[in-house]
Amino acid sequence: MQSGERNICEIKRHPFGMVTMYLSAGFMLVVLALIIFVVAPIVFPNADKNQIFSYGALAFLIFGALTLAFVFISHIVYWGNRWVLTSDSLTQVQQRSLFDKQNSQLSLGNLEDVTASQDGILAHMFGFGTLRVETAGERSKFMFPFCPNPNYYAQQILNAREQFEQKIESNEGTGRAYPTGVNADTADSGAVSFQVPTDDDIKR
Question: Which residues pair with 133 in a beta bridge?
C-alpha cells in the first residue's frame, strides 16, 4: 500500500459456490456406495458376495480419496479469489489453480463503471451475485462471481472512487509542491533545473 492509503474492505466469495461442490462430492460417494454394496449383489446373484464387497470397498476407497483431493484443491482455489479495496486502488487476486495466482491492480482514477447483478432464484435467496468493474482506456473488466451482497460492495467501490476524485481535486486546488531548487515552470514539462551553488554560497 502507498503512504496514506487505507484499506476499506476485502471481498471474499460467498460460501454457496463451495457448498454445491461439497454436496456434489457427497452425492457421488453415496451413489457409488449404493452401486457397490446394494446394486452389485442384486445384479450378480451368483457371484461371491465377499469378493464383490472386497473389490467394491477398494474401488470406493480409491474413488473417495480422489474425490477428497479434488474437493481440497477446489476449496483452496475457490477461497483464494478475492478483491481488496483501498482508498486508492482495487486489487483483484485470482487463484486459477493450486500453483497459479495472479494479482491485478486498478487505480480508482481509471475506474469507469461498476455493475452488480443477481441472476436466478438462488442468487436472490442466498444473497450472492456477480460484481463487474470496467476500466477506462483499454476497456478491460474485473469480474467477481459468487460475490456476497454485490449491491453493497458496488456502492462501496463507487463511494471510494468519489472520495478518491475529491482528494485529487483537493490536491490540485492547493497546488503542487516541488523540492527546493526545482524550477516549477519546467517541472511539468519533464525538464528540471537546479540552482548550482557558487563559491560564496559554499563558504557561507
Answer: 114, 142
Strand segments (E) across the chain: 7-12, 82-86, 89-97, 100-107, 111-117, 128-135, 141-148
- Could you tell me the three cell numbers for 187? 517541472
Q: Is the CB of residue 105 less than 8 Å from the CB of residue 90?
A: yes
Nearest to 131 by CA among 13, 18, 21, 20: 13
Count of all residues that appear for the chain in the document? 204
Architecture of domain 7-12+82-173: Roll (2.30)
Which sign does the torsion angle of CA 150, 153, 158, 159 carry?
Answer: positive
Query: Strands of 89-97's sheet, edge to edge?
Result: 7-12, 82-86, 89-97, 100-107
What is the model's pLDDT at position 190?
39
Q: How far is CA 172 from CA 115, 162, 168, 177, 189, in A?
A: 30, 15, 6, 11, 17
Mean pLDDT value of segment 14-22: 90
| pLDDT tens for each residue of 163-198 | 988 888 777 665 544 343 434 343 443 343 334 344
Alpha carbon of 134 to those of 20, 29, 88, 153, 170: distances in Å? 29, 42, 16, 15, 25
